[in-house]
Amino acid sequence: MQELNVTLEGQVVERAAELAQAVERLESVRAIGEAVATAITVDARMQAMVQGVAEHLGFDVAGAGLYDSDSGQLAKMVIYPIDERYQEALQTVNLNPAAPGVPHRSTNPMRKQLMAGEFYLGHSLADLLSPPMPRAAVEAVQRMYGIKTILVVPLPSEEKVVGTLFVATRRPEISIKERRAVQLVARQTATAIASARSYEALRESEERYRLLFNSGDEARFVYPIQDNKPGKFVEVNEVACKRLGYSREELLNLSYLDLNSPEMLGKVAAVQQEFLTKGYMLLEMVHLAKDGRRIPVEVNAHLFDLNGQPAVFSIARDITERKRAEEKLRQTQEQVIRSERLAAIGELAATVAHELRNPLSVIRTSAYYVKDKLAGTDAKVLSSLERLEKNVIASDKIIYNLLNFTKIPSPVLYLGNLNEVVRTALAEVALPEQVKVETQFAADLPQIMLDTQQLNQVFQNLIDNAVQAMPQGGRLAVRTWQEEGCVAASVSDTGEGIPSKNREQIFERLFTTKVQGIGLGLSICRRVVEAHNGTIEVESQMEKGSTFTVRLPISRAN
Question: What's the predicted TM-score (pTM) here?
Answer without folding.
Answer: 0.37
